[in-house]
Design a protein that fits this description.
With about 240 residues, this protein is α/β, with parallel strands linked by helices. It is built from 10 helices and 9 strands. It starts with 13 loop residues before the first helix and ends with a helix.
Amino acid sequence: MMSGKRWGYVVQFFCLLVFLGMSPFLIKMDGRKTMSVSSDSVRSQNVSDEVKPVVALTFDDGPNASSTPILLDGLKERKVRATFFLIGENVEKDENEKIVKRMYEEGHLIGNHTYTHCNLSKLETGEAKKELEQTDTVIEKITGKQPVFVRAPYGELPVDSEQDLNRIYIGWTVDPLDWMTEDTGAVVKTVVEEINPGDVILLHDCYPSSVQAAIRIVDLLQGKGYEFVTVDHLIMD
């Protein structure tokens, strides 16, 4: 993983988003076409209205039976909705089904993070497809909805991602490396110092230190006037 900023919100649906009236800013990452949203567009849709700057809080590798419910409690108390990219084999654990159901019922966005947290770029097309479809199935069984948004583990996309028009691949722009440090204070400091309107924050809800950091980040950024939205709202608004 890269520290600091890593550009790349979406790898697919460029034509669809243009059709919807967006003005995407195209850049390159690892030789692939990706899309970001300018900070001006997420700050304000109408220059005559004052709109809060928005950011998206995202979590990978869950759900975790111990730490995820604590995170959900904190987000609910603060009226914040986040985006959770779930690992299929974690979703299938009996104790986690009710957690996924709660995520969905409380308005969080649920995305696909593969079934086994594999590097999709190293798999044959059929194997990568199976990883994603297995996860789709277990999530849909609980929520009744098949996820559209995907975060590829390690940020490594499947070789045919540009042909997969049924999925939207989501990256991140602020990565405090919480999985490496497991240091709540350091994670909070990195995010608060690097944050800009329109950013996508990457955290992992399987670490208690990251859950504590997430709640502190929410409190600090809300105090600075930021609003937290799910990634679909960040992209589509």
